[in-house]
What we know:
Layout: H1 19-45, H2 50-72, H3 74-84, H4 92-107, H5 114-125, E1 133-136, E2 142-143, E3 147-154, E4 159-165, H6 169-182, H7 184-188, H8 196-205, H9 207-211, H10 213-226, E5 233-234, E6 238-242, E7 245-249, E8 254-255, H11 256-262, H12 265-285, E9 288-290, E10 298-300, E11 306-308, E12 314-316, H13 323-334, H14 337-346, H15 358-365, E13 377-378, H16 381-392, H17 397-404, H18 409-428, E14 431-432, H19 434-441
Parallel strand pairs: 5-11
Antiparallel strand pairs: 1-3, 2-3, 3-4, 4-7, 6-7, 8-10, 9-12, 10-11, 13-14
Amino acid sequence: MTDSRDRTDDRETAMPRKGAARTAKLASLPLGIAGRAVGGWGRRLTGQSAEEVSATLSAKAAEQLFEVLGTLKGGAMKFGQALSVFEAAVPDEMAAPYREALTKLQAAAPPMAIRQTHRVLAEQLGRSWADRFKEFDDVPAAAASIGQVHRATWHDGREVAVKVQYPGADEALRSDLRQLQRFSRLFQAFVPGTEVKPLLAELSERMNEELDYQAEAQNQRAFVKAFEDDPEFLIPRVVASAPKVIVTEWVTGTPLSKIIADGDRDTRDRAGRLLTTFHYSSPVRAHLLHSDPHPGNFMLTDDGRLCVIDFGGVARLPEGIPPHFGEMTRLALDGRSGELMELLRKSGFVRRDADLRAEDVLAYLAPFTEPLAGETFHFTRRWMQRQAGRVGDTRGPDFRVGRSLNLPPEYLMIHRVTAGSTGILCQLDAEIPARAIVEQWQPGFAS
């Protein structure tokens, strides 16, 4: 076992556990942003342009937002990760500080003390837990929202990743999500065109699943079975699990975050194609949908496979993705507004009291089908920004239509994960054969 006490401060965890302490940190966000806005007006009066002031406020707001979310871990960090996939929708002149802050998000979280990590391992794997490893590195290799990951060698020689849940993570998760819901209007400005309030509600509903590492292990085993021996995908096998510790095979690869930062064209396109194939094929192959699409959960291995990790949150789809989605997409793509409106009403996507014209609904939805119009589509930040600006413009016609549409609760996670995956594609700047992938895996689209 690695003796790393000289490298890691042997204190109790820096994760604030008491609700009052966490609430105070989260409450500092709206206060700080409001204070900077007042200062911004002052700088306007002294001659700075609106664009200069806006860029300055954006940079400082992003820095504060993700510093607080990362330091708190728990639901705050989980929310920050969920926001990260929508970074591509942020206008170019404001996006740089967001990207920098998001990159720092995971690294900013302070690790648990060594004694505390060992205590959790003993509680979960038994007092002789160390005998199950040949080596165990006490310095975490990565920080997750409710736990940290250590690299180790299992007793049989396999390299493994050991995810250890932070003590008090359940309390912190509940406290954070309650407070974040209070500030949902504030966070809306960071993700134009995306509804923050339903996102927070969904994270709250998934909370118990996220906290149970044994349930995560079951999800991961199901994905391993579905993608076993696949030449293009790699799901690490589960080696051991307990409610607050999970041990899986260690995989080395290039994270999508690095490919987004400096990957070449072929690598970007391959990563995008594999990510899209995984998203659409999983409900058919595993009857599950990986519901935590942020770049930290995907990597490309040296042999070109897409490795997927973190299965704490999944959508269970025993019948796969409902064919209504594919049928609606096809009708919108073909411009068949009357049939589209009829199917939307029948499926509960249009409220009975909504006064909408079929052609207006088609005009709202059709741009989202652009990636399927040709053999390939180039996903770019500019395209994402156009969509976000279109649906988020309170003065435009699409805003009223969007507000009048209804997303049935059973479809919320599917929609959110699809939007998140699309955000990653735009960050990757990937050109992929999206239509062929959807035709192969999305029920209802090809018929």
